Every structure is written in C-alpha cells, then in structure tokens.
Amino acid sequence: MHSAQPSPRARRNRLLRHASVAQRRALRLPGDVRALLWSGTSGLVFVVLNAIMRQLAVTLGTSQTQFLRYLMGLLVMLPLVLRAGPRSFWPHNVVGQFTRGGIHTVALVLWFMALSHITIAETTAISFTTPIFIMLGALLVFREPMRWPLWLAAGIGFGGVLIVVAPKLGGAGGSYSLLMLASSPVFAASYLMTKALTRYERAEVIVVWQAISVTALSLPLALWHWHAPTPGQWATCLVCGMLGSTGHYCLTRSYAAANISATQSVKFLDLVWATLIGWLAFGDQPSRSTLIGGLVICGSTLWIARREARGARQGG
C-alpha cells in the first residue's frame, strides 16, 4: 500500500513551521552576526543585479536603465504598501528621504556612466572603496567605536582590491575606472544617511521612499534619452526592480541590526560573487590578480566575521 501524500496545505504549513523556527534561531544570533548575514546577502543580490543592468545599459542607455530599475522597484513594492495602507509608509521626515534620494541619484549617475565600460569584477572591486568612506564617516559623524580588527580587516580587504584594480588602471578603461571610483564617497554619504534614518524609520519605509525619490529625480534624464523598451527589456527591468528592492531591504536591515562599521568588512566578499557570476554567465576568465585579490578579500572577511561572532558571545 502506498502511504498518503501530504496535501498542498499540509506541505505549506510544514514550510511555514520550518521558516518560523529558522526565524527564531536567527533572532537569537548576536546583532553583529545578523548584520553581517544581512550585508552579505545584499552583496550577492547586488552583484547579480549589476550583471543584468550592465547588459540593459548597453541597449537602453544609462539614464533610462537607472529610471526603469527604480520605477520597477517601486511597482514591486506597491502591493505591500496598498495592503498595509499608505499611511503606514508615510515617513517621519520627507525632506530627509528626498535629500538621501538626491545624493543616491548623483552617485548612480556616476556609477552608470562607467558601468558598461568595465567588467563586473572591476566594478565590484572598485566599489569596495565605499566601505572605507563609510567607516570613516561612521567614526566622524556617528562617533561609532572602531575596534582595531575592523580597521585591520578593511585594510587587508582594500589591499586585495588594489591587487585586482591596479594592473587595469593604466589601460583604455582607466578613466571609467576613476569615474566609478568617484561614485564611492557619494554612495557612502547616502548609506550614512540611511543609517541615520533607521533610528526612526522602518527598513521597508526607507526602501519605498528611496524608490520614490530616485525614480522622480531620474525621470528628466530618462525622458531626454528615451528608447521604447521591448517586452523582454520590460521583463528584465521588472526582475531588476525585484532584485534591487530585495538588496536594499537586506542592506537597511543590516544597518538597523548593528553599527554601520561592523557591516562593512563582509562587503569585500562581493568580489568573489562577481568573479563567479562573470565566469559562469559571461565566460569571463578571471585574471591571476583577480584570483589572488579575491583570496585576500575572502580571508579578511571570514576572519573578521569569526572575531565579531566570538566578541558578541563574550559580550553577551
């Protein structure tokens, strides 16, 4: 005799129970460890997003790709807003939300201008200067305590970035690499404002208003260079919207879980994801400098993650 198969409802209830157990276990983790997990997840999501948007920017143009990515991100979150009620998503500080959105838009313009001219691995490696600016800003603006392991991990990780980037700066794409580098301190300013907003705003409110502000501020340039997207490009933009909203939600949760400086070391792991995706999806063979730098970055990330976990257990 065959045993009766569980019904779809029973399978769904079982999955919900497993998810509830996993959530309770995650909440028992120290705050710094949760922040590292959220930050690492956001990094992986953003690397996938960057790979997709790089292809879109070549065909649609940078300004239109930027606008459609945030417009679709807003549409993805719209059911959540309507279900909870628009009043629950009204921020405490609208001016602060739009100021942060304006700074983020400037960073995106610089970033998109360079995106289609350099590889995914280079894009990711250069973006690792952003955590350095964030850590300095956290020290100066928020007076966050900076333990020496965080500085050491950041220094080692940045050394790994230099191993990857330095051989390429003298080539034809050197000016675009510098343009990408110029976006890093602007992104850092945006993320520091995000940290300030998490003091009195929920993560989902910040993500929704980022989508609103960047979409509105990106519209004029997008209309100036508009090309009618194909159905496939509309679908790809929708995927980008989902990935972007997910990545920013994870990033905002990481900032709410711990000091912003504690989340930055794990961002160096993004180069590993970028190299793997570039190799698997586009056949990009990683150079020796990329592999060596990636190993240095990965080692520093794993080391600081273990130290943060051990320190949190001893402190708790």
How would you describe this structure to a colleague?
With 316 residues, the protein is mainly α. It has one domain. The chain is 78% helix and 0% strand. It has twelve helices and no strands. Helix 2 packs antiparallel against helix 12, helix 3 (62-84) crosses helix 10 (231-257) and helix 9 (203-224) packs antiparallel against helix 10. It is globular, with a radius of gyration of 20 Å. The mean pLDDT is 78.
The number of strands is 0
Count of structural domains: 1
Oligomer: single chain
Secondary structure class reads: mainly alpha
State the order of secondary-structure elements, H for helix, E for strand.
Answer: HHHHHHHHHHHH
Shape by Cα distribution? globular
Q: Which spans of ≥5 residues are poorly predicted at pLDDT below 50? A: none
* Helicity, as a percent range: over 70%
| Number of H/I helices | 12
- Mean pLDDT across the residues is 78
Largest sheet: none
Beta-strand content estimate: under 5%
Q: Please compute the radius of gyration using only Cα atoms.
A: 20 Å
Distance from N terminus to C terminus (CA atoms, Å) equals 54 Å
Please provide a brief summary of the model.
With 316 residues, the protein is mainly alpha-helical.
Task: Record keyword descriptors for this entry.
316 residues; mainly alpha; 0% strand; globular
